[in-house]
Amino acid sequence: MPISKQPPLAILPAYRPVAFELYADALTSAYRIENAVVTIHKNGAPLVTVRYKVARSQVSPVDPLDTRWFFDVDIQKICQDSLAPYNIITSVFVDKSVFFADNTDMYANYFITVKYEAIDLSTGILEDSGIDQDTSETFTVFSSSRGHTESMFLEEFYDNNPTYPAKALTKSSRDITYCKTDNAFLSFIQEDPTYNITNFQVIGYDNTGSQIEIGLIEVSNTSKNSQLTINTGEEALRSTAFYIGLPFNWLNPALSYFTISAGYISTPPTGYTRLSEIFTYRFKNCQCNKRELRLHWLNLNGGVDSYTFDFSKTKSTATTSDRGQQALNWGIGSLTPHKVTAQGNFKYNSQATQKYTIESKLLNNTVATWLEDLLYSTKVYADIDGEFVPVIIENKEQATQVSKGKIRYSLEVTLSNNPIIPRV
Is the model's pTM score more than 0.90? Predict the structure, then answer.
């Protein structure tokens, strides 16, 4: 079997090895296996073909003319380049008006096909080895990363069956406080087609913890080995249709907080089976939003995290320009030599950048460590007037753990798009 080793699990993160061991046998000393010609296929279509050189060889102890040539193939970089994030907004940032998205840009199915090239040692010509093409198994690769001390795989996120509820793609707290106008997100991987996530259950409580509302939301049934994201903001949920017979009254004045979980139902509108962990969302007073800036970012797991910096916010504008000089337009023979409005010195190539300087409230080590992803995420958006505005978190050194006391995050956040300034 020319593909001797493959990844041990069918679901893989793109930012850890997606590796194969290949081999080809040369049964005569007249040929030397030179290249493994590997074609990587994405969602059934050829994506790219790469030639890999021999990594090592092994001579048969029985027949010295029989040599086995080994190749090590890792396609993780190719998977990374063919998955989000791209230079456009990623599908995990779900608009309030949509509520739900199948994140097809964040995952894909990959397999490889392999042929080999050999050198005819008598002529020195590189030619096809004549060995039959082999095909690997198919693997679903997600645009996700794992820490050096974590499992290389994603199994903790897709045990979505009633016995082992799935974790969302986040390391945030499962108890979240936010404004009713805020965006928030939950992303899940679903692996078992027997237990597809087709519904989300929302349960509302008053300030004593008594259940006062319950509702079920239906989403499109996504396929096996896929990723989905929902917007869990109150406005997104309020604009989403719930099953008839289970209306959810978001205007109930006693509503203090709610929980949400992913699952499925066998017979609408009852028979709900929970497949995920439960998240709790509590409402806060948002009268001071002028000093707040809410950020959303693509985290290392491939989901979205959100946090509101509400201690202080300063917006500033920095400008640069060049200076030019031109002769005044003299009126020869006129009593007035030139117009007062004539411009001798002028500004051109005017550029401006805008940024926010923000600070968090004092944080404990758990929250500060969780926010670490924000510092190096390549996809960050500020929530400004209900729009996802792309921003860049400027490089800095930020404390994320301390042995005593609390931590305050202080960041400079630059808007990705500069003002459009008319030119001279």
Answer: yes
